[in-house]
Amino acid sequence: MSKNIIIASTSTLHDGDYLEYLLPELKIHFENCKTILFIPFARPSGITHEEYTAKVALAFAKIGKVVKGIHQFDDYSIAIKNAEGIFTGGGNTFLLVAQLYKKDCMIALTEAVKNGTPYLGTSAGSNICGLSMQTTNDMPIVCPPSFKTLGVISFNINPHYLDADLLSKHMGETRETRINEYHSFNNVPVLGLREGSWLKVTGDKVVLKGNLTARLFLQNQIPVEIESETDISYVK
Amino acid sequence: MSKNIIIASTSTLHDGDYLEYLLPELKIHFENCKTILFIPFARPSGITHEEYTAKVALAFAKIGKVVKGIHQFDDYSIAIKNAEGIFTGGGNTFLLVAQLYKKDCMIALTEAVKNGTPYLGTSAGSNICGLSMQTTNDMPIVCPPSFKTLGVISFNINPHYLDADLLSKHMGETRETRINEYHSFNNVPVLGLREGSWLKVTGDKVVLKGNLTARLFLQNQIPVEIESETDISYVK
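ok -> structure tokens follow
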């Protein structure tokens, strides 16, 4: 089987409920799944695995899916291997990656996604689809053993991509400046995915979805805006 | 000798030149120094050590100080040990910390600052004064061997502290949310230093300076605003 992945910038739009804007797409994406395995390790705002899983179950119930948290299983690798569909939610990417390594999930998850298990990532769960988590926006609240992630696409994701506020008097780095700093030391392309955008990966094909453009950063090149529905499989 | 440190949120205010707002303070802080050793490792926007040092030299020339970049020395530890005064500039904290470890500067720098060598940090250079760099705002563009930093104060710094924009429709985490996530896993106090604020450390005394309040986060407590001129030596 071939890859079947949705990589979303955010779980939630400002004017919507959790996962709401994605539900029509998820109904198709997970159409052959009765249950979804949820990976809650990123724990947004420090909520527990149980709380996070309950929140996700509520959203997926709207499209008739049952959600099980990976923390409910004895063997995480087997849970991933046996999953009909997998969702990794957002939160803190350092925490997510640290836990994926600690619980020996990284290899199992990479294999499952490469072998065609339908996968959804939002925010931190999207970050880990890239070659590394090095273009996360999150704070290093814990120290993972490595920044290397699933690499099921051939570039890195910057979720919640934010254009510079030209009226701001704040002197902290803009998102674009940060990504340019990344490219001072790394040559992996970076896709800035704005909230409401997602990537649909089908086999080797990677297509931008949603109403917005995305911003593509290649090392030593001027960033370009990618239109929705563009096939960006060439980016590597 | 006892500690003599300035820990500034930012090098530059929106309406000012590089280090301009701090120069009156720096004139006193470095009054016994003819030369300042500059640590350019954080390389904002990926600029070279030479470019960064030239920029800093230009600012310090206004108060009659000569600046030497640490990269110009053969032995970095000895350069630090012999320095009359030290300035670590901003940029990327992961890069700064990775380089400080790689170049065996971490112990020498801790010792020098603890022994009273006048030190100035801005942004990333302030982040490293805390117990760890885990409350940085920067992207993990390189992987340091440890997040542990100088620990010349007994809490962590969040520089460029930014209040939530209540009108924003962006769904990325606010700074306060990020710091609260840090406190889900760590009990080190965090001081959010707004741009224009700095800490003046004299011996064991730590005083907030500048016109603004700072936001103090203690684990499991509601954050509080600290007034300028407050002695916060009790925070640990």
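Residues 49-61 of chain A form the longest helix (13 residues).
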